[in-house]
Amino acid sequence: MLSGSAAARHYGYSSARAKALGSKLIDEKTMRDIINAKDVSSIISVLLHGEFKEDIEEFGGMEIKAELIDFALSKNLARNAGKLVHIAPSTERKLIRSIVGKWDIYNVKLLLEAKEKRQSYEAIARYVIDYGRYDSAAIKEAMREDSIEGLLNKLMINSPYVDIFRDALETYKKSRSVPDTVAEIDKSYFKSLGGVIVGLRVIHNESARIIKMDIDMKNILYMIKAKRAGLKFTEISPMMIERGNMQVHELEQIYNGSKDIESMALQIKAYDLKPAVEAYKQSKIKQLLVFEVGLRNAIFENSVKLLKHSMLTFGTILAYSYMKEIEIFTLRILINSRIYGLSKDETSRLIVWKTE
């Protein structure tokens, strides 16, 4: 890890830019105002006074239609994700490209799920992050393919993710299951980040830990869905992702030693899922979303600490990327809760937002 004047020369510009971007994230008071907003118009009014002003005005400002709000959020995320590659030191742009490549992967998974449901591109357009190799134009073009196999074959052409999509295609041919194929894509993507994690452990170990928390989240959410479906761990073990902070054998012991979702979540001591368990118990429709919120809160809190306390390190860039992602995730939950008339208490109980 660099220190002193060497770190200042190497990370001075990127660290300052990342912290400047971080200062534009929604602060705790503003997020509380959004949580307490009575309707979508009130939320939009709050957002128009901050960093989302440009994106919301592009889609109509205060007159924005409900179905266009997600377009504005996606555009904001895409714009900021693109900045990260440009502000990173030249020697570490490959690292950050690999990390923000998650949005390429996200778009492809969105595409596969829509194709299985026989949805049109228009049905998912608002959620597509218009960034990277698989931006909105590429996703729209791929949607024209007649089959899942044709779609994956098209995506493989001259792709930096050819190995990931080849494995996904083989999984689909065997199982004919899009959920299994999406899980394989996640597994292959994080496997491809193995070198990134090793590299980060050398230059900034806390950054590596944040990415490993992301892997933990994927594994735990997959286990929760499997537990609800009554599956054995042996049935899901091929889809578990290595290299997380929690080892797969540790997760296996927790899975096999619990009778239901609640008891399993409480055994995961690395993350405080007690609030999520309580929210799950109180939810009439037993939403699994509460567990994702709980896990993202943990990543968010660690990212905040990283951005605050990392001076002249790669961590400032990485922390901002995760905080921005979770900001968009949180806003979508809150806005959709108003659109669909969900209880404010039910959707906001687990949201933690302290950037100061």
Can you give a write-up of this model?
The protein has helices spanning 4-22, 28-36, 40-47, 53-58, 66-87, 93-100, 102-116, 121-124, 136-142, 148-156, 162-175, 178-192, 194-203, 205-229, 233-236, 248-256, 261-267, 274-282, 289-309, 315-339, 344-348. It is mainly α and 356 residues long. The longest helix is centred in the middle third of the chain and has 25 residues, at 205-229. It is globular and about 50 Å long.
Short summary:
This protein has helices at about 5-20, 30-35, 40-45, 55-60, 65-85, 95-100, 100-115, 120-125, 135-140, 150-155, 160-175, 180-190, 195-205, 205-230, 235, 250-255, 260-265, 275-280, 290-310, 315-340, 345-350.
Distance between the amino and carboxyl termini:
27 Å
Per DSSP E runs of 2 or more residues, the count of β-strands stands at 0
Number of alpha- plus pi-helical segments: 21
Could you tell me the radius of gyration in angstroms?
20 Å
The major pleated sheet works out as: none
Order of helices and strands: HHHHHHHHHHHHHHHHHHHHH
Overall spatial form: globular
Note poorly predicted spans: none
Structural class: mainly alpha
Beta-strand content: under 5%
Helix content: over 70%
Instruction: Look at the structure and give the mean pLDDT.
Output: 91
